[in-house]
Fold this sequence. Notes:
Blueprint: H1 2-20, E1 26-27, H2 29-38, E2 42-45, H3 49-52, E3 61-62, H4 68-75, E4 84-87, H5 92-102, E5 109-112, H6 115-121, H7 137-143, E6 148-154, H8 159-174, E7 178-184, H9 189-194, E8 202-207, E9 210-216
Parallel strand pairs: 1-5, 2-3, 2-4, 4-5, 6-7
Antiparallel strand pairs: 6-8, 8-9
Keywords: Signal
Protein name: Rhodanese domain protein
Organism: Chitinophaga pinensis (strain ATCC 43595 / DSM 2588 / LMG 13176 / NBRC 15968 / NCIMB 11800 / UQM 2034)
Amino acid sequence: MIYKYYIYLLFGSILFSVSNRVNAQEVNAVVFNDSIRNGNVQVFDVRTAGEYNTGHLSNALQADYTKKEEFMERVKYLDKDKTVYIYCLSGGRSAKAASWMRGNGFKKVIELEGGINAWKQAGEPVEGTADVKQMEVDAFRADIGKGEVLVDVGAEWCPPCRKMAPVLEAYLSEHKTVRLLKVDGGRDQDVMQSIKVTSLPTFILYKDGREVWRKQGVYEQL
């Protein structure tokens, strides 16, 4: 009887695993590249920001799957009706993220087989590998020292940051005296630590070096 129980348990686990991946679709690096180059799609990198900055696919958005709060916040700004091409380092994290996305309303999620490791081995191109120097904290302090300065802590690969782009543009067009200073959320870690910013996007308005207001996340207006 106990033996039969374990057989049923094992069989159930196998069925669950198969059903959980029934809608999964993986393609190799060449097909993946052709698809994202020729289609109106979203490219989603679920590695860490540090990994992203060692090289990423063109126009890729980023959210760290291992940071659940960050992932859940950023994934909601993707279009569920538009195909998502997803990848990580070797395929493990992207498989889990894709499975969650399919179970939560995303119509089509395509995984990169073997992750960016396989992509590089196939000789496909990556961007963002240049060793760009961080913004220095002293330089940042000097830059916000005079007048009204709006600091935008964000990144091109951050979905909610992109969502805020037209809002930011509208704010600056209405406030001609305000100067914009961008802080890269994936690179300028020293500056972020000095102004206590831990999530993207964050907007801080300074007047003569003094912080007067701060907003974090997505808003209809600043």
